[in-house]
Every structure is written in structure tokens, then in C-alpha cells.
Amino acid sequence: MKKRILIVGGGTAGTMTANNLAKKLMDEINRDEVEILMLSNSSKHIYRPGAMYVAFHKSHGNEFVRDQRSLLMLEIGFIVDEVVEIKADQNCVNTKSGKKYEYDYLVLATGCEVAPNRIPGLEEGGDWFYSLEGAKKIAKKFKDIKKGRVLITVNFPKSDNIPHQCGIAPVETTIMLHDYLTERGVRDDIEIIYTYPKNAQSMVDGLFLQAPTSKVLPTIFDGINVKYKKSFTLNKVDAKNKIAYSQEGEEIEFDILMATPPFIAAKVIRDSGLSMAKDDEGWLPTDQHTLKVIGQENIYTLGDTVDLAVSKAGGTIHNQTDIVADNIAAELRYGYPTESYDGKVIAVAQMGLSCGMPLWYDYDEDVQPTPCSKLGSFVRLGFNKGLYWAAARGMV
172 and 355 in contact (C-beta within 8 Å)? Predict the structure, then answer.
């Protein structure tokens, strides 16, 4: 009987995994023993890390959008229909159109979403670069500002040891902001203050979520005249008077508030009953090695939906997708998974508009700061503006 692998989500994680599965299971597909079907709530694929370039007028954003069907191998079925209910006990999902889709294996790749409404006043008084729409909005403010203060705040999930999306992004955009304002000739008249919450995953009273990077940031910030403050956990925002308040009792006025807002899992995941994360955040309990949803024999997850203490970023997904695809293929062929994820994350951080820093870490070793170079920036830009589309297709 034909087996169906159902993938929910057409972002980076879902697309890479679908294509990797199709390549690994081509023989079974050709023998009509396996089918791969993707369900997505959109016909478009948006590469969200590209939004930070939009925020600083280094892209209009159009090069980060593709037709989703064009990124999938022909052997993969693709339907635009939003999944609104997951019935794990019945091996099926229900969609917005009223249809039911059964599965033998399910891959949940629904990502995460910003939830600024979880901090009073942030939605009205803050800006962020985690979507093309948000990046375009803050880009206009950066273009118009001539003097004043830009305040950077970072918010973490309330669930224990869970990162926000793309842990290095607040550092990247702080340095990119310095470079951009310098290009505009207004940097001397604009104060930049970088703040970090008291608790950041396992880090306390730092400037980053891992100790080695946290220790070197003061030197980096001092060199570009960026002020910084530890233990500023954003509690509320007075949008009218432009004041940010911390849980620790401090307040900082601002002209622009560039925030890393709270993140939560997609609504369908939060409503699924599969998560036990704090504050209804919806992170899926994930076996750190097999990437199965804990308690579910035939459901896998990866990317921004997991509850693992690894970066919610493309450099993580690139290492997780092979594990998920290999394990599902192994289960179909041998009856058990064969691969184990070691927590590896590999990426190049955009440390300013023209400097890139390679970084990598895993479950056992924190990220170690490395030399920043123009070559690193070239590699990062080359990936984000071109090579990514090959990676999404499973070619890299």
C-alpha cells in the first residue's frame, strides 16, 4: 500500500526536507510505493533572513520571494491549503478548505511568528526586521532619522532554554545600523543603545545567549560607540511618549525602538495539543537526536518549531533536514531511524554592511567568535541573494 509523507509548511525547513526526501526515495516514488505531499498556506516562498537587508536599504525585497511550486521537485505534490487542525491520534490533518489529508509520516515545519502583542505597547511603539513588511517600515524610519536615539531590545520565549529566532540577528543589525548611519553621515548625531534581557536561555546578565560571544561584544561595541546595557528585560512600551520600561525597573526613552519581539509557534501547533511549552508558546517537544516529536512515532519536526536550545535559523535547518529525511527513509526501508542530530549550526554572521563572521556550534560546544572579513560578507551575501535558492531545492 502506498505510504504518504505529509509536510506541513512551505518555508525553508519544509522545502528543503521535501526535496531531500524526494531525492532519497526516488526509487520508491517511481514504483508508486511512496508519495510526498506538501500543504502550505501560501503559494509564495519568502526567505525571511533577507529582510534585514531591506531594513537598511540594501535590497527592495523582491529577490527574496519565489513561487513555492518552482522550488519543489516535480515528484512532490503541492497544495495551497492552510492546515487548521492536527489529529495525531487519527494520522490526519484538516484544512481551511474543509478537506482531510491522511498521512503515514508527518513533518511539521510551520516555523514561528512574531507576537509583539505579548508585551504591552510594543506592537504600537516598536519596529522589527523579521518580516519584509516590518523591515520596510523600519527602513523608512532609518532613512528619515537625523538625530536622536535608537534603542535595541531583545526578548526571549518564556519557555526554558529556548532561543528567539536567529540568535545573532540583534548583534548583526546593531552593527549594520552603525554602518548605515555612518554612510548617511548622521551617525555622530544618533545614539545607539543595545540592551539584553537578564535571562537569555542559560545565560544570565550577559549581552548574548552564549558566554564566549557575550564576553567579546563590549570591545566590539566600544569600538563603534554603541552603548550597551545588561539585564534590561522589556516589560512594556509607552508608544505615545516613546519610553521602554524593563522588568528590572529601568526606563529608556527612544526615537526608534528596534526590537526582537516575542516569538511563538504557529496557531495550528499551539492548538494541536502536542506542545506543553510555557505561556502557550507552542514549541514542539522534540527528541534532540532523531528530531521526532516526543510521544509521536510518526511525526517529525525541525526548524523554528522545535523546543531545542539551538538557533532558530537557516544554518540550523540546513543540518537538520538531512537527519529528518534520512530517518523517514530509513523507517520506510528498515523500520527504524538511523541518523542522529548533534545540534550543529553553521552560518556566517553579517557583522556590519561589509564584514562577515563564520560561526558554528553544536550541543556540546558554544559558538566561538572568529575573525570578521569582507570575504565573509561576500559569502553571506552570495548565499542570501543567490545560493539559498539552490539550497532550498536540495542542491547544496
Answer: no
